[in-house]
Design goal:
Layout: H1 8-14, H2 16-27, H3 38-46, E1 49-54, H4 56-71, E2 77-81, H5 82-85, E3 96-102, H6 108-119, E4 123-128, H7 134-138, E5 141-144, H8 157-176, H9 185-200, H10 203-214, E6 219-224, H11 227-243, E7 246-251, E8 268-273, H12 276-290, E9 295-300, E10 309-312, H13 321-339
Parallel strand pairs: 1-2, 1-3, 3-4, 4-5, 6-7, 6-8, 8-9, 9-10
Helix pairs in contact: 2-8, 2-9, 4-8, 4-11, 9-13, 10-13, 11-13
The structure holds 5-amino-5-deoxy-1-O-phosphono-D-mannitol.
């Protein structure tokens, strides 16, 4: 039930801090440590490479997951779009473990990969929001997202739940390997939940930007580097899907290799800059587009205001920044769709769960 909310999407965006807390509760043991099923730990430790398979928003969460699994747990990880995997199959390692990420657990493209890799005798783990779904039943292991039902076609709380669960998977794997973390993962996840809460309470900032710059625009670009780039891909998908604005997310360094030709007077360019080591470069990208007439917006934690618009994110751990930087993106897409008179919860031509290949 959406209660007093005008749309499920807005309700689901608002639920994200609570979902983070639920995930902490579900995956914490009595000692306050993370507890994952020991069979999952074993499956990961027996594998020499992880292959994440997903579509759409879940694929974007997988990209963030790869970074955490490689950087926190030092496990080589590849991420593949399910529909591409079957006919573009990479050379597999000796002992692969396949990780399927799917909110619904019913996505046909992902299922067809699962069927295929099972025939090859490989092991699998599904991260899904729906216990008992096809991908959960047919995989060897399941990790639940605990996000509660997601009704809006545009995925929001499932994306952040996927990233949170992937972070716990990375942390649990690191621990099993004897890697010292240097941070308290549960504490950091609770801080991220608090940060999300701050952002969902600042809807007017996102609504104003959406009304002023996205309500009539033909296109919109999102730029970022490193993990921010992955969130840009998700931001662009969200905006396209519900507001029908032609949107593209790309790596800041790629601007000069083509996309900058599209910048005209007033083109909105939104940058995410949460990673200290690349923030300088992304800021110079913003200057480049601003000098060609773009309307710029920066989403960052350092509070330096060098764009036309600014959204300040509360500080969170560097691995968890996607959990917070995506929230303003979801809200920008929501308000853009609203101001353009679109059907936010049921965008044209789309189904919540894509059960055909
Ligand atoms: O249920 P799944 O996570 O497998 O769905 C995958 C995509 O169809 C889904 O994320 C889609 O891209 C969303 N509508 C995006 O908001």
């Amino acid at each position: 039930e959406k209660g007093t909310y005008p749309h499920y999407m807005l309700k689901e965006v608002d639920e994200q801090p609570a979902v983070m807390r639920k995930i902490i509760m579900e995956y914490q043991n009595e000692d306050g440590d993370i507890k994952l099923d020991s069979s999952i730990r074993e499956a990961i430790s027996e594998s020499d490479r992880l292959y994440i398979i997903a579509c759409g928003t879940s694929y974007h969460a997988g990209l963030v997951g790869k970074q955490m699994l490689e950087k926190i747990a030092e496990v080589p990880t590849e991420v593949h779009i399910a529909s591409e995997f079957s006919y573009n199959m990479p050379l597999l390692s000796k002992n692969p473990l396949f990780i399927f990420i799917s909110q619904s657990g019913e996505t046909a493209d992902s299922r067809s990969v699962l069927v295929h890799i099972k025939k090859l005798g490989h092991r699998s783990l599904t991260l899904t929001n729906v216990g008992g779904s096809t991908l959960s039943r047919e995989a060897d292991h399941t990790l639940l997202l605990h996000a509660g039902p997601e009704i809006a076609v545009a995925s929001t709380k499932a994306y952040t739940a996927q990233i949170a669960v992937l972070s716990l998977l990375a942390v649990d794997t690191a621990k099993a390997k004897g890697i010292t973390l240097g941070f308290d993962p549960i504490q950091e996840l609770s801080l991220a939940a608090q940060a999300m809460e701050v952002l969902v309470d600042q809807k007017d900032i996102m609504e104003n930007i959406a009304r002023d710059y996205l309500a009539v625009t033909r296109n919109c670009f999102f730029i970022g580097r490193g993990v921010d780039y992955y969130v840009c891909l998700e931001a662009a998908l969200k905006l396209k899907e519900i507001s029908y604005i032609q949107a593209e997310g790309f790596a800041g360094g790629e601007l000069k290799h083509g996309t900058i030709a599209l910048i005209e007077e007033g083109t909105p360019v939104i940058a995410i800059a949460t990673q200290a080591h690349v923030n300088g470069s992304i800021r110079s990208n913003l200057k480049e587009v601003a000098s060609r007439g773009a309307h710029t917006c920066i989403i960052s934690m350092d509070g330096l205001n060098d764009a036309s618009d600014q959204i300040v994110l509360p500080e969170v751990h560097e691995y968890l920044t996607p959990l917070v930087s995506v929230v303003p993106m979801q809200l920008l897409a929501y308000y853009a769709a609203l101001h353009r008179g679109c059907d936010v919860d049921k965008p044209r031509n789309l189904a919540k769960s894509v059960t055909v290949e």
